[in-house]
Write a sequence for this structure.
């Protein structure tokens, strides 16, 4: 048997320790033998926990410095996703003057590239043989691609032809899809390598959630203020956002790369399994399929709401974008306060039940948009966003913690670690759903007669109101109910992964 190293790592939502001990796992067929030992990426002794101290009362095994270094990657990725998710349809329609249906279709098609990139990157990072971590090289490459694509998207030249503008931004979106896969798939594989402690996984994702909350604050306050000050339909406004956002994304993701030099990692000697056989194995895991179903249904609703949000604010609520700033501040405070409370709640009632609690709060918030009107007080908007933030916090923390449980459960059964493959399909589900949302909203706006040449607030018709309610209320509400129903059947427990 071959010896391999394991390094402690911090997951996007927090940092957890991996009490890895010497172990030998034997598998048959193409799934080869694996042994592990503790080391860090530099070959020095890693932060080595004492397995005897891995208890609910004393769960932390990874130093906070390492946790926050690793978690900074979530800041960059969340700014990348939230900015593009919230601005891209509005930017393409109202600034680049691309038809809503065409814009939604281009966003959707660009994400389909993830069908190829995510499994390839996941399998590649699982099989990469290096003296250090299998994952960290991808973080380096992905940092450049993510930051570069963000700048490209929001500095699209204003060609005279709509086709040229559409072609350029479509190419930038393809690079974004590849860059996101390069960074995020290996990055999100790390929590399962960091710890086999059931509750510490939730703590890891709690730390990551703090970075996600900070990213939401940055995007939710700075972007709308900049757009109102510089012009919400001015290309210059988006150029500023692109350059500043790209710099933050690059800095945050590089900190994650550099700060995990001494993080623990796993390396397994696998006799080059075929990608298709790995895919078949992953999709035979009923716990994983159910979790994917939950995420897909819930995130299509989230993506639809995000795509319609700016249009809804300007057209239906008839408010300036600056209203987003106080809502973002309150939402961030709610997420920061909720993260540790949700982790504690999950220890008492279970992860899936905690996820359901968050889903119910989110459902109530999105259904309330049906009653929203221009005359309602500002506090109503802020309160809705606070409740949405609580639901989103439960979504992010519990879903990722459950994913790492599923990965560890599979490794216990087979002796083969497939963090990259599992994370690849999980990541693709996220990207695909965030492509479906803009597609639905774009087609709905086109069908309602939205005119791309007019200011978005100029067309206040009943048809456009219903098209926007489809995005912020009807679809999220229906799919939240479906997600809660699926969650009720999730059966993986702590004793299954002990």
């Amino acid at each position: 048997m071959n010896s391999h190293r394991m390094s402690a790592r911090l997951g996007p939502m927090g940092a957890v320790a991996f009490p890895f001990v010497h172990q030998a796992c034997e598998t048959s067929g193409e799934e080869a033998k694996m042994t592990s030992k503790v080391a860090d990426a530099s070959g020095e002794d890693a932060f080595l926990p004492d397995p005897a101290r891995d208890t609910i009362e004393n769960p932390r095994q990874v130093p906070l410095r390492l946790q926050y270094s690793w978690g900074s990657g979530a800041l960059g990725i969340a700014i990348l996703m939230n900015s593009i998710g919230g601005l891209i349809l509005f930017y393409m329609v109202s600034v680049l003057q691309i038809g809503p249906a065409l814009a939604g279709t281009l966003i959707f098609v660009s994400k389909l590239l993830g069908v190829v990139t995510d499994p390839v990157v996941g399998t590649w990072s699982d099989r990469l043989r290096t003296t250090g971590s299998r994952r960290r090289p991808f973080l380096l490459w992905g940092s450049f691609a993510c930051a570069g694509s963000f700048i490209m998207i929001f500095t699209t030249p204003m060609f005279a032809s709509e086709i040229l503008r559409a072609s350029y931004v479509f190419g930038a979106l393809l690079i974004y899809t590849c860059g996101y896969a390069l960074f995020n798939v290996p990055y999100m594989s790390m929590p399962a390598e960091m710890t086999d402690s059931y509750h510490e996984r939730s703590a890891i994702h709690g730390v990551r959630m703090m970075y996600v909350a900070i990213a939401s604050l940055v995007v939710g306050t700075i972007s709308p203020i900049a757009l109102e000050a510089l012009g919400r339909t001015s290309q210059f406004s988006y150029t500023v956002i692109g350059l500043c956002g790209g710099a933050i994304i690059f800095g945050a993701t590089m900190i994650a790369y550099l700060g995990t030099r001494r993080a623990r990692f796993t390396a397994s000697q696998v006799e080059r399994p075929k990608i298709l056989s790995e895919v078949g194995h992953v999709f035979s895991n009923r716990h994983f399929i159910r979790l994917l179903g939950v995420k897909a249904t819930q995130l299509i609703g989230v993506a639809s709401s995000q795509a319609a949000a700016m249009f809804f604010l300007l057209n239906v609520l008839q408010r300036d974008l600056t209203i987003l700033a106080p809502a973002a501040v309150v939402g961030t405070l709610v997420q920061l306060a909720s993260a540790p409370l949700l982790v504690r709640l999950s220890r008492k009632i279970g992860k899936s039940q905690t996820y359901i609690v968050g889903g119910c709060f989110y459902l109530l918030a999105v259904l309330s948009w049906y009653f929203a009107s221009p005359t309602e007080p500002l506090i109503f908007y802020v309160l809705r966003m606070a409740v949405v933030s609580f639901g989103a916090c439960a979504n992010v923390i519990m879903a990722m913690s459950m994913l790492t449980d599923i990965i560890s459960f599979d490794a216990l059964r087979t002796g083969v670690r497939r963090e990259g493959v599992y994370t690849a399909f999980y990541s693709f589900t996220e990207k695909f759903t965030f492509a479906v949302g803009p597609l639905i909203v774009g087609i709905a706006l086109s069908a309602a007669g939205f005119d791309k040449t007019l200011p978005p607030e100029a067309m206040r018709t009943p048809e456009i109101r219903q098209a926007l309610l489809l995005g912020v209320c009807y679809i999220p509400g229906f799919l939240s109910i479906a997600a809660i129903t699926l969650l009720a059947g999730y059966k993986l427990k702590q004793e299954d992964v002990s």
